[in-house]
Write a structure and sequence with these properties.
Helix content is about 45%, strand content about 20%. It is α/β, with parallel strands linked by helices. It has two domains: about 1-35; about 55-180, Glutaredoxin (3-Layer(aba) Sandwich). The protein has a six-stranded mixed beta sheet with strand order 1-4-3-2-5-6. Helix 4 links the parallel strand 3 and strand 4 (about 130-135). The chain is elongated. The termini are far apart.
C-alpha cells in the first residue's frame, strides 16, 4: 500500500510543477495585459528611502567613505558601482567624465582588486571625487545592486532619489540632470 502512495506522489509531481509554472505564467500575462508588468524593470526597494549603513575602505588614489559622510553632503551625489573587469563600466567612463562637471561622483569598486582598479582609472580617467572598495560585495547587496555598473542619485540628507541599473547613456544622463534642477 505504501508503494502505491509513493508511486502516485512521484507521478503527480511533474503535473503539480507544471500547474505552478502555468499559474505564474498566467499571472505574468495578466499583468502585461493590465499594463502593470514590465519584464525589463528591476525592482529598487531602496528608492526614495535613506541610504543603508555602510563603511568602505580606501581605494587608491582616493579615500574611502561611509554612510555618515554621504548623508552630510549639502549637494546631490551620484554613487556609481563599477569594476575594472566590467566591459560596460569601461563604455560608461566617458559619460561619467562629462557628468563630473555637473555633479559630484563617488565610486564604489565592486568585488575588485585595488591594483586592478587603480590601473583601470589610470588608463580610462578618473571621474570620481571619492572611491571606496567593496571587496566582498556586501555594500552592493545592501544597496540592491544586481550587477555593475549601477548608479544612484543621493540627495542631501541621504535619500536615494534615482537609480539606473545599466551603463549611463545620453538619455539617462539627461534624466539625471533634470532631477538636479
Amino acid at each position: 500500500m505504501q508503494d502505491i502512495t509513493r508511486r502516485r506522489l512521484l507521478w503527480s509531481l511533474p503535473f503539480a510543477t507544471a500547474a505552478v509554472a502555468g499559474g505564474g505564467f498566467l499571472a505574468m500575462l495578466s499583468g502585461i495585459r493590465k499594463g502593470n508588468f514590465d519584464p525589463k524593470e528591476i525592482n529598487t526597494p531602496i528608492l526614495n528611502k535613506p541610504i543603508p549603513a555602510f563603511s568602505l575602505s580606501a581605494q587608491p588614489p582616493s579615500t574611502g567613505f561611509n554612510q555618515q559622510e554621504l548623508q552630510q553632503q549639502t549637494e546631490p551625489v551620484l554613487i556609481n558601482f563599477f569594476a575594472s573587469w566590467c566591459i560596460p563600466c569601461l563604455t560608461e567612463m566617458s559619460m561619467l567624465q562629462q557628468l563630473s562637471s555637473h555633479i559630484s561622483i563617488w565610486g564604489i569598486a565592486y568585488k575588485d582588486k585595488q591594483n586592478s582598479v587603480s590601473g583601470f582609472l589610470k588608463r580610462n580617467g578618473n571621474p570620481y571625487q571619492r572611491i571606496g572598495q567593496d571587496n566582498n560585495g556586501n555594500v552592493g547587496i545592501e544597496w540592491g545592486v544586481s550587477g555593475v555598473p549601477e548608479s544612484f542619485l543621493v540627495m542631501p540628507g541621504g535619500i536615494i532619489k534615482w537609480h539606473y541599473p545599466k551603463p549611463l547613456t545620453v538619455n539617462s544622463t539627461q534624466t539625471l540632470l533634470s532631477l538636479l534642477k
